[in-house]
Fold this protein.
Amino acid sequence: MRVGVLTGGGDCPGLNAVIRAIVRKGVQEYGYDFTGFRDGWRGPLEGRTVPLDIPAVRGILPRGGTILGSSRTNPLNAEDGVRRVRENLAEQGVDALIVIGGEDTLGVAATLYEEHGVPCVGVPKTIDNDLSGTDYTFGFDTAVNIATEAIDRLHTTAESHMRVLVCEVMGRHAGWIALHSGLAGGANVILIPEHRFDLDEVCGWITSRFEAAYAPIVVVAEGAMPSDGEMVLKDESHDSFGHVRLSGVGEWLAKQIEKRTGKEARTTVLGHVQRGGTPSAFDRWLATRFGLHAIDCVHDGDYGKMVALQGTRIVRIPISEATAELKTVDPELYAEAGVFFG
Amino acid sequence: MRVGVLTGGGDCPGLNAVIRAIVRKGVQEYGYDFTGFRDGWRGPLEGRTVPLDIPAVRGILPRGGTILGSSRTNPLNAEDGVRRVRENLAEQGVDALIVIGGEDTLGVAATLYEEHGVPCVGVPKTIDNDLSGTDYTFGFDTAVNIATEAIDRLHTTAESHMRVLVCEVMGRHAGWIALHSGLAGGANVILIPEHRFDLDEVCGWITSRFEAAYAPIVVVAEGAMPSDGEMVLKDESHDSFGHVRLSGVGEWLAKQIEKRTGKEARTTVLGHVQRGGTPSAFDRWLATRFGLHAIDCVHDGDYGKMVALQGTRIVRIPISEATAELKTVDPELYAEAGVFFG
Amino acid sequence: MRVGVLTGGGDCPGLNAVIRAIVRKGVQEYGYDFTGFRDGWRGPLEGRTVPLDIPAVRGILPRGGTILGSSRTNPLNAEDGVRRVRENLAEQGVDALIVIGGEDTLGVAATLYEEHGVPCVGVPKTIDNDLSGTDYTFGFDTAVNIATEAIDRLHTTAESHMRVLVCEVMGRHAGWIALHSGLAGGANVILIPEHRFDLDEVCGWITSRFEAAYAPIVVVAEGAMPSDGEMVLKDESHDSFGHVRLSGVGEWLAKQIEKRTGKEARTTVLGHVQRGGTPSAFDRWLATRFGLHAIDCVHDGDYGKMVALQGTRIVRIPISEATAELKTVDPELYAEAGVFFG
Amino acid sequence: MRVGVLTGGGDCPGLNAVIRAIVRKGVQEYGYDFTGFRDGWRGPLEGRTVPLDIPAVRGILPRGGTILGSSRTNPLNAEDGVRRVRENLAEQGVDALIVIGGEDTLGVAATLYEEHGVPCVGVPKTIDNDLSGTDYTFGFDTAVNIATEAIDRLHTTAESHMRVLVCEVMGRHAGWIALHSGLAGGANVILIPEHRFDLDEVCGWITSRFEAAYAPIVVVAEGAMPSDGEMVLKDESHDSFGHVRLSGVGEWLAKQIEKRTGKEARTTVLGHVQRGGTPSAFDRWLATRFGLHAIDCVHDGDYGKMVALQGTRIVRIPISEATAELKTVDPELYAEAGVFFG
C-alpha cells in the first residue's frame, strides 16, 4: 500500500505535525509506503514528488510551515487536469491520497472522489477556523495566542499615551480570530465580518472608555465592514493564494476614529506573523490526532471522508459536508461579547 | 440582588478572568451588587469579605492567581459550619453564591444546595482537567503549554549529550497534562496514573530510541506508578491543599533507567511553574465564558448547576454530576499515543 | 528631601522598573518623599501630580508602559515655561527632579540644569538605542526579542510558499533594532537608515537566495532609504510624539521586489507591538539598576548627570553629552553582518 | 586552509549560532574548508568527525543544543592524548582549531597551544556567565529569561495561597543567574554562592514580607550555602559533565523556612530547562558575533586567543587569561540588590 500526501492553500502551524503523525502510524503500524506531493495539487498534477518516510518527518513536529510546500493550483481548472492527476497517481503507484487543506483544496478532493473515484481522505486546515463540521481546525489556536499576546502589549502603550490602538487581525469572511483574541485580550471593541459595524456606536464605546480614564483597544478582523458602506480601502487585490492583501480596514478605522473623537489612534496590522512559527500545544495535539485518524481512514478504506473534532473526539464526516458552507460566528456568541464593549 | 463569589482549592490561571466576567456582566447588564469572599469557603465560614465591583476587576484578565485568595477549608467539617455559612451569607445580604473550584470546593456547594437550600452556582476549576461533565477546564491549556515549552527545551539538551531526560508534570490521579504535553512535545515515553507502567518496556523504548541515534524524552505524571509496585518515593506527605509534595517518581525513574540501560538520565520537575502566571488565550476565553454563563444562571434562578464546556457550547449540568466521578484518560486515547513511543 | 519623577517621550518597556527602583531605594535607604509628575514635562509645567510611594510601585516591575503617563510637551517652547516649571516644583516642595526620557526630554533637563540651576538627574530611555554615552538603553532588548520572534515566524511561512517576506521594524534614524533582530532572526537582507540601499543589490541577494532553494526574509528599519531617492511613501506625517506614522518603506519595498524579481513579496509592519508589554529580563535588570543609580546621584547631590551603562557598570555622564549626538550604527558593524546577505 | 571546530562541556543556547557564523564567513569570505569534530575533545582524540559545510549549518541559528555533540573528555588525561590529538588533526588536514567551550574545554586549548603549538582559537561558553575577560557569555541571557518567566509565574501562585515559593536556579560557583533573574523577577530574597546566607536573616525578610501582606519569592543559586554549614543535602555527586546533580539547597531551604516561620513553603527546581531550547535574541547576536570574530582570528593567524565581549565590542584576549580565574559576583553588586530584600 502506498499513500500520497499533499498540503494545499495558505500555510498553517500544525501542517508538519499532521504529516508526521500520518507517516509514523502508517509506517510503524500498517507498514505503508508514502509519496509526498510537492506544492499542493500541483504535485499530483505535474508529478512533483518528494520522498516521505520516517527520517523525513524527524524533528518537524514543532516547526511551522509545511515540508511539502503549498500552492493554490486547482487541477479541475487545468486542461485535462483530472486525467493528469490520475495518471501521476498511477505512475507513482499511489493507492490512496490524504489531502490536507481548506475549502478549496478539499473541494477538489471531494470532486475527485465523488465524480472520479479517486480514493481521498481529507484533513481540515484553516487558520480562520471557518470550516464546517469540526469544532476547531489546527493553526487557529496559535493565531489566537499570537494576536492575544500582541493585544496585551498594545494595552500598555495605549494607557501610557491615552491613545486608541486598533489591531487588525486575520479573518476575511469569519471573525473567529478577532472574537477569541479580542475576548482573551480584553479588547474594548471587537469588529467582525459577520456583523456590519456602526461607526457612531464604535466611537461611542471609545469615548466612554476614555471617560472611565482608560485607553481603548479595538480588534478588527480584516474583513469587517461598516454598515453604511462608506469605507474606501487602499487595495483590494487578491494574491495567488486567494488571500486578500492588507485591505486597510484597520488604518481606515483609525483615521475615522481620530476624525470623529479627536483622540489619537494608531493601527497595528499583525499580518503573516499570525500564521507562521511553532504551533501551540493545542494545535500540535489536534494536528497529531487528525493525522493519526486520517491514516486510520485509509486503513479502513473509508474514502471521501474528512476527519473532524467534535468535543474531544475525532470523527469522520463526508468531505463535501465540510466544504458546503462557511462556519461563521453565531450572532448570539458575538452578542455575548458585547458586555465588554466600551 | 447581591451575589457572593468565592474561589477554592489550588490556584489556576483563569480564575481572575472568571471573576471579572461575572462582575462585568452582573453589574452592567443585571445591576447586581457583589460581595467577594476571601480564601475559599473560609470566607463565608468566618465572614471574611472584600469589596467586589467594576474597579476591583480592572486589569485582572491577564493575571494568574486569584484576587479573592483561596483555601481548602471545608465548612462541612467545621463545627456548626453550615449554620455559620448561612448566617454570614445572610448578614452580608447575599442572595446567591457563585462557587469557583474543583471537586472538593464544588462538593460543598452541591451539599449546601441540595441539603440546605443555599442558592449556589458552580464554575469548574481544575488544572488537571479531571472533572466530569465538561470537555475542558480553564488552566489546563496553560499548564500544557508551559509543559510543552519545557519539553521543547529538554529535547535540545538531551540530543547534545545523548542523555535521557525525564520531565515530571502535574497529574496525581489523571494523566491529561502528561498525555497532551507529551504528544505536543514529541515525547518518546508518556506515563500516566491510569496505566501502570512496566519498567522493562519503558527501558526497551529508551534503548530503541538510542539505537535510532536520538536521545529520549520521558514525560511522567506525578501520579504514575510502576506495575510491580516496587517504587520507593522519597516523600508522600500532603500539603494543606491536598496536593502531594513532589513525590519523586521522576527522580526514581531516572535512577532506574540509569541502572538498567547504562545511559545517563536527568529529571526536571516542573512543579508550581505549571499553575502560575498569565493564562493562555484559550483559558482566558473559556474562563470568561464560564463567568458570563454563571451569572446568567443566577439571573435565571437556576441554582445547583455548574457551567460546563461541551464542544464549543457552554451548558449547565447539576453540580453533583460533575463531582461524582473523576474524569480519567480513556485507555483507547492512551493507546493512540503509543505509536510515538520508542 | 522630596524628589520629583517624570517620564517623557514614547513609552518603552522598563519605565515602571526604573520608577520602582527609584522609589524603593529612595524611601527605604534614604528616607525620601516622592512626587510623581504626570505626562512628562506637562506635569511640572501644569502642576499635574500623582502620589508616588511604596504602595504605588507595588507589582509594576513586569508591566510595560509607565504609571506616570507620558507626553511630548516641551516647557521651553511654552510661554513662560521655565518660570512655571520652577514655581510648580517649589510649590510641591520638590528638591530634585529625576527625568526619564530620550533626546528631547533629557535635552530639556540639560537646559534647565545648565541655564536655570534646576537640580536634575537623567535616566536615558529610547527603544531605538540611539542615545550616546550608554552601551544600551532599556526597552531595546525587548523590542529586539519581539522582532526576532516575528522573524522566526515569518521564515516558516516564507518557506512554505517560496515568497519574499519583508518585515518593517522601528528605527527612524538608527538601525539598531533592524541590525540586531535581523542578525538574530537569520534575515537575508538587513536595511538601515545609516546606509542607503541599492535596490538592484537587494534584488540580487533575493534572487540568489531563491536559487539556493530558500525563501528570503528582508528586515528593514522604517527609516531606511534607497540610494537613488525614488521612493514615494504613502504618508510621512509625524504624530504628536515625533514618531513618524507608518512610513511605508516596507510595502514600497515589497512592490519593487515583486516588479523586479517576479517573485511574490509580502510585508509585515510590526509597529507598536514592539514597544509595549512586559520587559525582557535584561531590560528589567538594566532599568532597575538605572533607577538605583539615579537616586544615588540625588543622594550625592550630583546633578546635571545621566546614568549610563558602560560594559557591565553603571556610570554617570553629563546629560548634555548624551543628547549631543545620535548614536548610529557603525559602518564596520553593518559590514560585518553582510556575510549573511543573500 | 581547513579549520576544525568542536564544542565541549555542558550545552548552551547559542552554540549552533557560533558554528553557523564560523562556517558562513569561513566559506564565503575566506574560502576555507571545515571539519566538525564530534563530542568535544573526544572528536580530535578519537578521530570522530562530521561534515561541516554551508548546507550543514542551514536553519540551525534558532536551535538550542549543538549539532556537533559535546562531551567532557579531557585529552590531557588520556594516555598519549596530545599525540593522538595532533595525529588526528594532521590526518584530517586541519590547519587550525576553533574550540567552543568553558573553563575546562578552553583550558585544554590553552595548554595545547602554549605547550604543543597547536593553533587554537577559543570561543567562551558558559551558561553561568562566570568566565573572566568577557562581559557576557551566550546562553546566560536565555537562562535568565527562562528563570525570570518562571519567577513571574510563581508570584501569582504564591500570592493566591500566601505561601513562600523557593526557586532554585543554576549557578554552582557563581550567582549571576540568581542575581539577574532575581532582580528581574522581583524576588524578595536572592541567595548566591559568593555570599553565605544567614538563615535567621532570610526568615526575617520572609516574615516582614508577609507582614506587608505579600507572599515572598526566594531565588537561590544551586551552590548557595548557609553561613553555619548546617545544611545536609540529599545528594552531592557529580555527573560526567561536572554538573552537580540537583543538590537540594532549594528543598532544604523550604523545609527550614517552614520550620522557623510556620509558613508553608514550596520549591521549584528549574534544572535543565534553563539550558535548552531556542536562544534569546541577545544570545543569538552575541554567539553570531563570536563566531565571525573567531574565524577572523584564524584568518589573521592570531592563535592562542579567545574572543570576548567588552562593552559592545568583540575583542581578543589570551585564552589562558579567561580561564585563570572564575568571574564571581562582586560583593558591591550583590549589596545593591539588597534594597529589594524583605
In short: The first strand of chain A starts at residue 2 and ends at 7.
